[in-house]
Automatic annotation (TrEMBL), chain A:
Protein name, as recorded: ABC transporter permease
Protein's cellular compartments: Cell inner membrane; Cell membrane
BP GO annotations: microcin transport; transmembrane transport
Keyword Chloroplast attached: no
GO cellular component: plasma membrane
NCBIfam families named in the record: PRK15021.1
Pfam families in the record: BPD_transp_1
Family: Belongs to the binding-protein-dependent transport system permease family.
Upper taxonomic lineage: Bacteria, Pseudomonadati, Pseudomonadota, Alphaproteobacteria, Rhodospirillales
InterPro entries attached to this UniProt entry: MetI-like, MetI-like_sf
Xref: PROSITE patterns: ABC_TM1
TrEMBL record, chain B:
Keywords: ATP-binding, Nucleotide-binding, Transport
InterPro entries xref list: AAA+_ATPase (IPR003593), ABC_transp_ATP-bind (IPR050319), ABC_transporter-like_ATP-bd (IPR003439), ABC_transporter-like_CS (IPR017871), Oligopep_ABC_C (IPR013563), P-loop_NTPase (IPR027417)
GO cellular component annotations of the record: plasma membrane
PROSITE patterns: ABC_TRANSPORTER_1, ABC_TRANSPORTER_2
Similarity comment: family membership: Belongs to the ABC transporter superfamily.
Descriptive protein name: ABC transporter ATP-binding protein
Species this protein is from: Azospirillum doebereinerae
Length: 365, 543
């Protein structure tokens, strides 16, 4: 039922998306990785997932229990990695651990060699130069990168689409002034400004997002603007005006769907750019606060510790694979929205295509 | 070349388009011959496969997506199907030339006229630059382009549509081809220019003894130009006959249907003293021409220049004129969709200068139907949403009531009410135009601007739409402003006619009077060109 309710255009696009096998599989791989990393606390954590102690169940992932709960001496939160505590608990029950028994900030004090330690059975990808497990930091770092990218992309798209829509729809002086402003704004040296701003305020996730948003919203403006400029003279927009529809109604209902094609096509690439920018800032040390799990910081560690190649290589491969997956997805999305991809399917007129082309197609039938 | 008396002989030609969703046969076994110096017309409605047939002669289809499961095309002694690229290049533009419908897109916008024509001369004749230039000039003179010396360096956008089509013809004639294929050569042109171009083609054909394959949907053009006609329908030739025979004794039912498809009937005769619905007094729409560093306004394009018009209840005022005459702008200005000067009275109130908010309640009483049924419907909304949009804006009725009104409007325009859940692209051009009419009707307007509602449609569909419009007008006592360049349609629908040229009214009056005793020279030229395809030399007529 759900499939039959999709418009034929949407169905054709889905088919096109699926037809790009590489992008289609990239999409699923990325989705699995992303959803997996959303549950990072269940995959890599220094607290157990579940404890059975004295016939009661405890969920250390969700709740903080003082050590006294398990017969310990301190009122502070239990350090489950402490062998003494472990013995206490296992004496009266059992513990279920996450697959990786390290969180992103857990320091392994029992390293056989000075940090950074090479890969071993305990630390699958070794530790960084502060003795923290690389796998754990990767999982959390991937999550924060993608989340940051997604939020930044969403915000820049919303602002970009609104700005582009207003410019394109009203045109004239509004358009002229806005365009000149954007040209000047884009001329600002973004990275340097970010570095300066980052040294004034202590960068947090949201601060960084705000700072990057200041400059990233312009990416979509000209695409959306062009769509609106074209569409505002279309007959169905005129017809809507003749019906008495207000400007906002026309923009949202009639023109925006056209602009969404261009927007969605661009989005994976903007996401890619956002992730790269965050990584670059982290690499330079102007990014997320110290201690945060971040791919850029791991790269910087790799550069500082050339004798420990697992750091640099891991960060490189994770970044390269993640960005490639996103590019492949982006290509598939582009295919999905490309009207020329279905030139063989003559009967379906593609929206946004000039009527003459459709008429010609129909003449060819 | 002796065994084949015909210049071109097409036998059992089939064309199939392959796609992801299976093959589609566009041409299903078509056979015809063209002998030297003969004019053969391929007639059919859109989708009949006539253009595909013509394109396969020069093997210009998108191969390998298109292919020929069977058939042969022999030109002289050469088989053209699956011929080598080298052979084809020798034929194309040299022995068989082609002109297309849309002269703007068929010429390269970045090359001057001289360069475009020279190209064929260099390719096939290997002429020197000076010789080619002389020949180009000769050709331009031949096709009657005014001031050919000055035009050599002109670019396509500097020429009018008719002049561009003349350049296209000059290019096609450059190598004195044996066969000229003209694919809807005049469809995109104004009627007076259409008449001139047809006359030119006829003259040139006689002069060079060329064969002409004319592809058209217009039976008037066929009657005027062709010796023999092939009527195509759904990929097959249903009837082949001499022109004289075909028009007198059509054999196939489809041919008969096509011949009877001309808009017929007479306009309604409402009382002359009916209430005035829409009137404009010396309406002006001027576009400033800005020049110089300070963008000072140096002049105006007078799109509509002091036009007064009155439309009464139940009446239809036909606005006739060629492209650029300001007729569409006039329609939009009356609806206040375009800024203008001068009084606009709707129902006795002057609505000129009203704010959009104040105007909104009136919007439901004045509606518009546009020319292009593909562009005028939002492709992403279902038919029900498109028609119901106005009801939502004006807050008419609740959900169920709106749905009922949409269904009723669809029924009124002759569509199945259950089709309201489908999307525009699932409908044919004629059906889409019915949807557009339903969108206007559902608001129960008093006044409707019909901006060339039939021009983009096939002949038989045109007649149906005209009948539908007349029917609806009679039922609801509507006032129409009917904008068209097609005088036959105007005659079938309008009680009054207004002839416009360059933003001014040349002549206006009752339809019968205008058609039977036109007073102005321009009106006479327009009528001759539109109804008899005759080119009249009149100072007012452009080239």
């Amino acid at each position: 039922m759900a499939a039959s309710r999709l418009s034929p255009v949407t169905r054709r696009r889905l088919a096109n998306f699926r037809a790009n096998r590489r992008g289609f599989w990239s999409f699923w791989i990325f989705l699995v990785l992303f959803i997996g990393s959303l549950g990072a606390e269940f995959i890599a954590n220094d607290k157990p997932l579940l404890i059975r102690y004295d016939n009661a169940l405890y969920w250390p992932v969700f709740n903080a229990y003082p050590e006294t709960t398990f017969g310990g001496e301190f009122e502070t939160e239990t350090d489950y990695r402490d062998p003494f505590v472990r013995e206490l608990i296992e004496g009266k029950g059992w513990i279920v651990w996450a697959p990786v028994r390290y969180s992103y900030r857990t320091i392994n004090y029992n390293l056989p060699v000075p940090a950074p330690a090479p890969p071993s059975a305990e630390n699958w990808l070794g530790t960084d130069d502060q003795g923290r497990d690389v796998v754990a930091r990767l999982i959390y770092g991937f999550r924060i990168s993608v989340l940051f990218g997604l939020v930044l992309t969403a915000f820049s798209s919303v602002i970009g689409v609104m700005a582009g829509a207003v410019q394109g729809y009203f045109g004239g002086l509004t358009d002229l002034l806005f365009q000149r402003f954007i040209e000047i704004w884009q001329g600002l040296p973004t990275l340097f400004l970010l570095i300066i701003l980052a040294s004034v305020v202590t960068p947090t996730f949201w601060w960084l997002l705000g700072l990057l948003l200041l400059f990233s919203w312009t990416a979509l403006v000209h695409v959306v603007r062009a769509e609106f400029l074209r569409a505002r003279n279309l007959d169905y927009v005129r017809a809507a005006k003749a019906l008495g529809a207000s400007d906002v109604t026309i923009m949202v209902r009639h023109v925006l769907p056209n602009a969404m094609v261009a927007t969605l096509t661009f989005m994976p690439f903007i996401l890619n750019g956002s992730i790269t920018t965050l990584t670059a800032l982290d690499f330079l040390g102007f990014g997320l606060p110290p201690g945060s799990p971040s791919l850029g910081e791991l790269l910087a560690q790799g550069k500082a510790n050339l004798q420990a190649p697992w750091l640099g290589l891991t960060a490189f491969f994770v970044l390269a694979i993640m960005l490639s997956l996103l590019i492949f997805i982006g290509e598939a999305v582009r295919d999905a929205f490309d009207p020329r991809k279905t030139i063989a399917q003559l009967s379906t007129a593609t929206p946004g295509e000039p009527a003459a082309a459709v008429a010609r197609k129909e003449a060819a039938e | 070349m002796s065994q084949n008396p015909d210049l071109l002989s097409v036998r059992g030609l089939q064309v199939e388009f392959r796609s992801a969703h299976g093959a589609m046969k566009a041409v299903k076994g078509v056979s015809f011959d063209i002998s030297k110096g003969e004019t053969v017309a391929l007639v059919g409605e859109s989708g009949s496969g006539k253009s595909v047939t013509a394109l396969s002669i020069l093997q210009l289809l998108p191969y390998p997506m298109a292919h020929h499961p069977a058939g042969s095309i022999r030109f002289g002694d050469t088989e053209l199907i699956r011929a080598e690229e080298r052979t084809l290049r020798g034929v194309r533009g040299n022995r068989i030339a082609m002109i297309f419908q849309e002269p703007m897109t068929s010429l390269n916008p970045l090359h001057s006229i001289e360069r475009q024509i020279n190209e064929t001369l260099f390719l096939h004749k290997g002429l020197s630059r000076a010789a080619a230039r002389a020949r180009t000039l000769e050709l331009l003179r031949l096709v009657g382009l005014p001031d050919p010396e000055k035009r050599l360096t002109a670019y396509p956008h500097e020429l009018s549509g008719g002049q561009r089509q003349r350049v296209m013809i000059a290019m096609a004639l450059a190598n004195e081809p044996d066969l000229l294929i003209a694919d809807e050569p005049t469809t995109a042109l104004d009627v007076t220019i259409q008449a001139q171009i047809l006359q030119l083609l006829k003259d040139l054909q006689q002069r060079f003894g060329m064969a002409l394959l004319l592809i058209t949907h217009d039976l008037g053009v066929v009657r005027k130009m062709a010796d023999r006609v092939c009527v195509m329908n759904q990929g097959e030739i249903v009837e082949q006959a001499k022109v004289a025979d075909l028009f007198v004794r059509p054999q196939h039912p489809y041919t008969r249907k096509l011949l009877s498809a001309e808009p017929r009937g007479n306009p309604l005769t409402p009382p002359d003293n009916a209430a005035e619905v829409m009137a404009a007094d010396r309406l002006k729409v001027h576009f400033p021409i800005k020049k110089g560093l300070m963008r000072r306004t140096v002049d105006h394009v007078r799109a509509v220049d002091g036009v007064s018009v009155t439309v009464r209840q139940g009446h239809t005022v036909g606005v006739v004129g060629e492209s650029g005459s300001g007729k569409t702008t006039l329609g939009l200005a009356l609806l206040r969709l375009h800024a203008s000067e001068g009084a606009i009275r709707f129902d006795g109130t002057d609505i000129q200068g009203w704010q959009a908010k104040r105007l909104r309640p009136l919007r439901r009483q004045m509606q518009v139907v546009f020319q292009d049924p593909y562009g005028s419907l939002s492709p992403r909304l279902s038919v029900g949403q498109i028609i119901g949009e106005g009801l939502g804006i004006h807050d008419l009725g609740d959900r169920a009531d709106r749905d009922a009104q949409v269904a009723k409007a669809l029924e009124e325009v002759g569509l199945d009410p259950s089709s309201r859940h489908r999307y525009p692209h699932e409908f044919s051009g004629g059906q889409r135009q019915r949807i557009a009419i339903a969108r206007a009707l559902v608001l129960k307007p008093k006044f409707v601007v019909l901006d060339e509602p039939t021009s983009a449609l096939d002949m038989s569909v045109q007649a149906q739409i005209v009948d539908l419009l007349r029917d609806i007008q009679a039922r609801h006592n509507l006032a129409y402003l009917f904008i068209s360049h097609d005088l036959r349609v105007v005659r079938a629908l309008s009680s009054h006619v207004m002839v416009m040229k360059d933003g001014k009214v040349v002549e206006q009056g009752p339809t019968q009077r205008i058609f039977e005793e036109p007073r102005e020279a321009y009106t006479r030229a327009l009528l001759a060109a539109a109804l008899n395809l005759e080119a009249m030399t009149s100072p007012e007529v452009r080239t």
